[in-house]
Specification:
The chain is mainly alpha-helical. It is built from two helices and no strands. The longest helix has 18 residues.
Length: 48
């Protein structure tokens, strides 16, 4: 796989792990009103 120089940076790797952790955490939210909040949180995590 071809890597760009920013993909080797430690902060980039940490941000990918943060997004994965946020996705896992948001899956455990209660189902009532979950969808709008989860979608917003996931979009915010990816935009970081």
């Amino acid at each position: 796989m071809l890597y760009f120089s920013f993909q080797k940076m430690g902060i980039y790797q940490l941000s990918k792990e943060l997004v994965k952790d946020i996705y896992k955490l948001s899956c455990s939210f209660p189902s009532g009103g979950k969808y709008a909040l989860v979608l917003q949180i996931n979009r915010a995590a990816v935009s970081i």
